[in-house]
Amino acid sequence: MTTLGHEGDPTASRARPPVPDPSRSPSSSPGSVATTPRVLGLDGMRGLGALSVILYHVVDSTWDARAIGVAYSLSRALSDAITVFFALSGFLIMLPFLLAAAQSVPLQSIGRYYRTRAMRIFPGYLVIFLVVNFVLGAANVQNVRNPDFAVGTITDPATLLANLTLTQSIFPATLSTGILPAWSLTTELGFYLVVPLLALGVVRFMRRRGPRLLVLFAPGALFVLIGTITRAGIAIGHLSVEGADLADLNWGSNWFAVLMRSTLAQADAFGYGMLAAATIAAIMSGKLRAPRRRTSVILCGAIAVLIAASLVAMKADIPAVSPICIGLGTAIVMYLCAVETITHRAADNPLIRTLEQPVVRYLGSISMSLYLWHMPILQWLAGLGLIVDSYPSLLLVLGMTIGITVTLSVITYHLVEKPALELGRGGRRPRRRRRSLS
Fold first, then answer.
1. I want to staple 327 with a disulfide (CB 3.0 to 4.6 A). Which of 86, 217, 231, 272 is the partner?
2. Which of 193, 146, 138, 153 is nearest to 172 (CA)?
3. Cβ distance 397 to 386 under 8 Å?
4. Which residues contact 384 (CB under 8 A, 6 or more apart)?
């Protein structure tokens, strides 16, 4: 991927900014595939999202966290931060496919795509799970709603196999076993599987019936519709179950919880990102014009409104509203970051400058390891007797969790994740031939 920089044009804020000309782009030459820029700010968003999840779990998962009041209320606003990751995936995974369709160039290799996605997820996850289960003994042995719930080492063959294959969240008996946050990786894999099929459908339609702008938005709109309908169906069905509560709906050993953790129920989060990707693909291919700065200001106001709506919904105990607000807000931020990148205005944007700080970007690079390590580390610390019952103890547990998690994540990323991803992309550098002494 290439990074599009700032050209320093003083008139850029007054004139309608230029966008890449697909007719002059190498990606539109015969036999080539579409190339996408590295959108500035997205790595930082991923890093901040990971920190938000850690903060929420530290406050929510410790025994006496509710006693500290304000911190618990604030942490609830971060409880749907996983939506940020799904929206980011929807944007980043779908953008190359939609751009190829919009520019009428070949799609990327489907085989290489699947190989890259598998190498992105499985090597890092397997190493972390094996260490958590067999070294730390900090895996969830049973479902978290089980009265006999315990943290330790999984020895049951069926449960162990389900966790090794990332299928634990598709069976009621093994749901929430192993590493609790890993359920989202299974949801991501479900999304990865269907993306090429959606892309092929878009390409076939556009080639047979001519390029139509609305076709680019169809996959995202479809995912938003699927997610909304699925969640509504789960809620209606759950209400008909006598004695059921919200915790059972989310994490119990039942098919409602399995469906709630599935790609179907989380499809709307992916869909918001896909809609943002469709808009950027249309701009980069010349089908839409890049917005003026005043439009960006209006969208920033919309983000503030969505954040406020999410906080109000949490305060009013209406959990269904928050994921929608966060998903829409994330999509708008991604859209703004992409527009600022392709129009060479990113250097003037304070939000992007913040998200592009080296430390924040690096946290984004190791975000998957951060996401997987933090909960077992938190449970391991809880096993040592660390309890949150005051602000000092909260800061102690939070600091220890972040410190240990970041250290382990750096090791996992550089020794496992990064080499595996390079191997999946075919990025191993060929060995140089040694010069002959003769």
1. 272
2. 146
3. yes
4. none
